Amino acid sequence: MNLVSAFVLRRIENRPNLRKILDNMGWLFFDRALRMGIGLVVGLRVARYLGPEQFSQLNYAIAFVSLFGVIASMGLNNIAHHDTSSWSTSRCPASR
User: I need a surface site. Which of 1, 10, 37, 48 has the fewest CB within 10 A?
Assistant: First the structure.
């Protein structure tokens, strides 16, 4: 089954980099769709297993952790990067 028209194939046949990019985009799209499908199936199974009350508690806990995780990590990467890049080899905890 050919999903791409002959016109498009003629346009990209002499451009190997473009073909690689389009192949990679296809695989990334497939990966995203597969992950979303699996996430939906797992979410439905967990919801049926836990029931409405426990599932709502689980969602509340996930929302709470996500909210404060985002707030806690604001700027933390920049601070950690700045601090660790200023360490000399003798001060680095990993080199001890």
Answer: 1
